[in-house]
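Changelog note: in this version the structure field was regenerated for every chain. One regenerated record is shown below for reference.
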Amino acid sequence: MTTPTTSFGATTPFILIARCQVKAECLDAYLEAAKIANQAVKESDTGTLHHTFNSDPDDPCAFVWSEVYRDDASLLFHLTNPGLQAYLQQHGELGESLSLEVYGTLSDETKESMNGTGFPVKFFDTKFGYSRVNDSK
């Protein structure tokens, strides 16, 4: 049995939540764009350990991407994924809002990159806890 990670930073796993609101008249097109982006991430982002698109039970036009990354480098790679870039461009046309929340400690450089996305980002740095996400390495 491995010892879980108990210190956090640029080389440890973290969770990203992306909350998006879609224009009602664009719902079908948005869902297709999200599906294509998800497939692109699945095929190329090996450091993206979990990537799901979840529907809000109270609002048919609200969705949440739930994502787990192996480390900061995995997120930075993800941000350059052509499939993600296409999705973000389509979001500008089909969506109303997109905000990001990061649960885990990122480096200052990674936070700067996230702040440069043009979307609101809120960082929740880790104070204590443990992670077994990388136990399978």
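Spot check on this record: The mean pLDDT is 93. The first strand starts at residue 14 and ends at 22.
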